Amino acid sequence: MTPDQRLVRGARSRKAITRHAVDVASVTGLNGLSLGKLADDLGLSKSGVAALFRTKEQLQLATVETAREAFLDAVVRPASDAPPGVTRLRVLIERWISYAEQPLFPGGCFWAANLPEFDSRPGPIRDALRRQHQAWLALLADEVRHATDAGEITDPDPDLAAFRIGAVLTAANIAMRLDEPDVANKVRRLLEDFLG
Amino acid sequence: MTPDQRLVRGARSRKAITRHAVDVASVTGLNGLSLGKLADDLGLSKSGVAALFRTKEQLQLATVETAREAFLDAVVRPASDAPPGVTRLRVLIERWISYAEQPLFPGGCFWAANLPEFDSRPGPIRDALRRQHQAWLALLADEVRHATDAGEITDPDPDLAAFRIGAVLTAANIAMRLDEPDVANKVRRLLEDFLG
DNA sequence: CAACAAACCGTACGATCGTTCGTACATATT
DNA sequence: AATATGTACGAACGATCGTACGGTTTGTTG
């Protein structure tokens, strides 16, 4: 069962395209993507790009998925080395701040950039973005739960705590994008206040 | 000095167009605006709309300004009846929740929808949106300052408090747009916890 | 009355968009 | 060896975009 090299090639091309599309979409939004632009940027033909994803919406969906993988690699996976509870929570937050401060994507947080554009437009793209957003909040909530179970902190509503953490982080992303000073420390103070 | 009726007419037309443009932009974003679409929606000609605003960017800027006025009418001005400090802060927050829950604009908060789209794109639109965003946070901070000066609450950093309130509110807007349940009460609990 | 200005329209322009079709080539399958 | 599949391309399509020009109508100013 040797792998089909045609499919391997295709998968590699798709990945290269969506990885670049993530960068573009973090600035211009998923709607700002254009097949011609992407093709030009990568030295491909427009029809070639269009053929790999049968429609633009599928390109956008694949882009969303690629963004998720990059986010997991940069933020979530590194934190899984830390012990559950408050310390892992701290690593997650610290990683997220780096993710926004030395931007993994040139436009900052991918979801902060694209959720507002699609949250009022029903369809598979909104569904995918919402699913990922909820997964991120659920991850935070789980860690808060761990922390309360271990007695590290006391919090009556882990879901609410996760909502609050997520709110501060995405607000921090906007503030950084608007070139406001000292945002990272602002966030650290707010969240340390919460964890202490 | 009777007013020039031609200019009056023009101003009224511009207002009608930008008021509709605000609604559209709250869903599709300011980039999703199109002269042809706006003209069709309002029964005008594309070239007529284009002539009233000399360029699309100026239409977008006028749209941003119209959104600001509508926001002031719906959220800020009603709260100015309440006495400064905690109670006015409460009215502001309650008004903002209504503003997002029974949306003044069909796509929810105008700035939550458009700031992420322009925060990485230098230019007059980003500048205008940022100015308004900062004015909103400054308003919240001023009210927090009033409250601490009056001894109603104790808070070492009103700017940080405003950042926190704004963060929770915009996160609430997203959550509502994603059809999550009971968001308003979530927010009320978080902010009451802060004000109490 | 003459000159001007603004609102508004119809038309047309170049550009860009997503999509489709036919084709060439490499790889798998039978 | 014959057939099918997937990548990639060039060319062309209809649609839509922002903008520009000329002309008509209505109101203002000299």
Quick recap:
The structure is a homodimer of 196-residue chains. By secondary structure, chain A is mainly alpha-helical.
Q: What does the secondary structure layout of this molecule look like, with pairings?
A:
The structure is a homodimer of 196-residue chains.
Chain A: H1 5-28, H2 35-42, H3 46-52, H4 56-79, H5 86-101, H6 110-118, H7 124-149, H8 158-177, H9 183-195
Helix pairs in contact in A: 1-4, 1-6, 2-3, 4-5, 4-7, 5-7, 5-8, 6-7, 7-8, 8-9
Chain A binds a DNA duplex (30 and 30 nucleotides) through residues 4-7, 9-10, 13, 34-37, 44-52, 54-56.
Mean pLDDT of chain A: 97
Q: How many helices of chain A does DSSP assign? A: 9
Major sheet size, sense and barrel closure of chain A = none
Of all protein chain pairs, which has the greatest interface, and how many residues does each chain bring to it? A-B, 36 and 36 residues
The named CATH superfamily of chain A: Tetracycline Repressor, domain 2
The tally of domains of chain A stands at 1
Uncertain spans of chain A: none
User: Whole-number radius of gyration of chain A?
Assistant: 19 Å
SSE class of chain A: mainly alpha
